[in-house]
Design brief:
The protein has two domains: 2-103 and 209-233, NAD(P)-binding Rossmann-like Domain (Rossmann fold), CATH 3.40.50.720; 105-204, Dihydrodipicolinate Reductase, domain 2. It is built from seven helices and eleven strands. The chain has helices at 10-21, 40-43, 58-67, 83-92, 105-121, 145-157, 209-222, and strands spanning 2-6, 25-30, 48-51, 72-74, 96-99, 128-135, 163-165, 173-180, 187-193, 198-204, 227-229. A six-stranded parallel sheet has the order 2-1-3-4-5-11, with helices on both faces. Strands 7-8-6-9-10 form a five-stranded mixed sheet, with helices on one face.
Amino acid sequence: MNIALIGYGKMGKEIEAIAIKRGHSVVLKIDKDNSETITMANLKKADVAIEFSTPHTVLENIERCFDANLPIVVGTTGWYDYFDKIKKDCDQKQGSLFHATNFSLGVNLFFKVNTYLAALMDKYDDYEVSMEEIHHIHKLDKPSGTAITLANQAIDKIKRKKKWSIDSKDSETLFINDLREGEVPGTHIMKYHSAIDDIEIMHKAHNRKGFALGAVIAAEFLNGKKGIYTMNDII
C-alpha cells in the first residue's frame, strides 16, 4: 500500500518504520511545517491515510480524505463530540473511516476486561470506582481518549455512576485523575476502593510501538472497504 501520514511527530515516525517493515510505502508526510501540501492531488497518490495530528485539525483532515475518496485511519482523539456529523458525511460521500481511541491490541483486550469487571462491580455499592491516567507532557487532550472509553464502559455497567469528570468527585461521578509526566507513553488504572480492600486493573504501555502497529494493521484492514470501522472489527 501507499500510505499518507497526516501527523509526522513521534507517532508518525514510529508508524512509518513499521509500515516500511511490513512492505508498504509512505508517499506523503504532513506536519505543521508543510500543512499546505495536504492537497487533493497529493492525497490521491495514496491508498490510505493514517491520521495522528491534533484535535484542532483532525476534523478538516477527515473531510479532506472523504473528498479525495481516500480511506482514513484516525488515531487522534478529542473530536468525538462531532462524531455524528462525521458519520453522516462518511455515509453521504461513501467514505472509509477507521477510528479508535487506542490502537494497541493490549489496550483493546484491557477494554474487554474493564467491561467485564465493571459489570461484576455494579451490585457492590461499597466500592467507589475511579480512574488514573498518566501521559507525556506533550499530550494535548485531557483526559485521554482511552480514559474516556474506559470511563464510559464503566458508567454503562455501573448504575450508580451517571457521568465522568476530571474535576468533580460526587457520588454519581466517576472521577478521572489525569496526570501529565515526562515522556510516559500511556498508563491507565481502573480503581475500586472500599474500607476493606482495593481492586485495581492496569494497562501500562512501555513504548509507542503497540499503538503504531495497530494503526498500520487497521490501514491494511481498511484498504478497499467503505464505511466506518473500529478495533472491534479486527479483534
